[in-house]
Amino acid sequence: MPGQRRVTMPDVAREAGVSAMTVSYAFNHPQRVAEATRRRVLDAAERLGYSGPHPGARSLRRGRTGTLGVVLGEHLTYAFDDPQATQFLGGVSSVCVEHELGLTLLPVTGGPSDAARIREAAVDALILWTSADDDPVLDAVLQRGLPAVVHGGPAREGLGLIGIDDRAAARAVGAAAFTGARAPAVLSFPTGRDRQPRLLRGPAPDAARFSVTRHRLQGYADAASAAGLDWARIPVLVLARNDRAEAEAATQRLLQDSETPVDAIAAMSDELALGALAAAHRLDRSIPAQLAVTGWDDTPAAAAAGLTTIAQSLRHQGELCARSVIEPGAAPAQAQNAPVWQLVHRASTHGSPPADDVSRAH
């Protein structure tokens, strides 16, 4: 009713004759409260008309919400615009369908409301899609005490971690890109939460706050060293997002402005690589005679473009993430199905056959 005072958790505590912490546990962590005490708290809450600390409280009376949460680490549109994100979410949703669970997407905007959004989400478990080392949402997830896993990193105590060996894969695809190159370059994902595009020369990989970016830079640096190239001189174009149009514009500037003609580009995704190929075609650069290009993910568009790339199943990784928090007892079986990657050789790099050649599997 208008003007009626809102019932609070301490009101319920007084009515039930328990502490406010016990009320919180009764709603959020029922396993920590004796069943008789929990029932007394829920009965008191019902008498006072208290619906719980968040929108899922009514479902939590049964000890669960029936919903899995995915923290995107990006704006909400990313889930629908990015091909790799849609593949990953497809794998997550397939497990949700199997277990008759709902799916809640929790976007990260970089603003102060991010952590609160995670803390208040009515979910039973959480999956994080690749976060930065210093992202406060990691602490918010840990504070929930729910089953949680991170895809791609970073590794944090108390959180599961699922992903491929990005450094080893980057070393392999970097070797394919840099073979015979004298002036290679890298198209990189963001290095920090500011997501500012910039041109760096041989950046220290450890300075990147996103673990996926960091590990791939480490692998590219390994490949450059093995090819006798000076990593400190290699331009790394850091982009704001995984966007083909942004990559095309940045690559065109790089190819036009570089004093030494860039003759190879290792891109951290197929979307970025396809943007680089578009820029090369616009400037009439022959692939791979004048410019070798590699990608990452092995999308259908990459195959159609003859792109040498890293093949991985993000759908499978999405399934593994979902099962790790929904079916914790299945963890040993999952270890046998750990994410794998393959280097697929195609015509966009030197010495590659015209047909797909999967040269290494991990």
Order of helices and strands: HHHHEHHEHEHEEHEEHEHEHEHEHHEE
What portion of the residues fall into strands of 2 or more residues? 5-15%
Number of helices: 15
Any idea what the radius of gyration is? 24 Å
Overall form: elongated
Low-confidence region ranges: 54-62, 331-336
Beta strand count: 13
Determine the mean pLDDT. 87
Which bin fits the share of residues in helices? 40-55%
Layout of helices and strands:
Blueprint: H1 9-16, H2 20-28, H3 35-48, H4 57-60, E1 67-71, H5 78-81, H6 83-98, E2 102-106, H7 113-120, E3 125-129, H8 136-144, E4 148-151, E5 160-162, H9 166-178, E6 184-188, E7 198-201, H10 211-226, E8 235-238, H11 244-257, E9 264-267, H12 270-282, E10 292-294, H13 300-304, E11 309-311, H14 314-326, H15 331-335, E12 342-345, E13 357-361
What does this structure look like?
- There is one protein chain.
- This protein has 362 residues and is of the alpha/beta class.
- 42% of the residues lie in helices and 15% in strands.
- The strands form three sheets. The protein has a five-stranded parallel β-sheet, covered by helices on one side. Strands 7-8-6-9-10 form a five-stranded mixed β-sheet, with helices on both faces. Strands 11-12-13 form a three-stranded antiparallel β-sheet, covered by helices on one side.
- Helix 12 links the parallel strand 9 and strand 10.
- Helix 1 packs across helix 2 and helix 11 crosses helix 12.
- The longest helix is centred in the N-terminal third of the chain and has 16 residues.
- It is elongated, with a radius of gyration of 24 Å.
- The N and C termini lie far apart (62 Å).
- About 4% of the residues have low confidence.
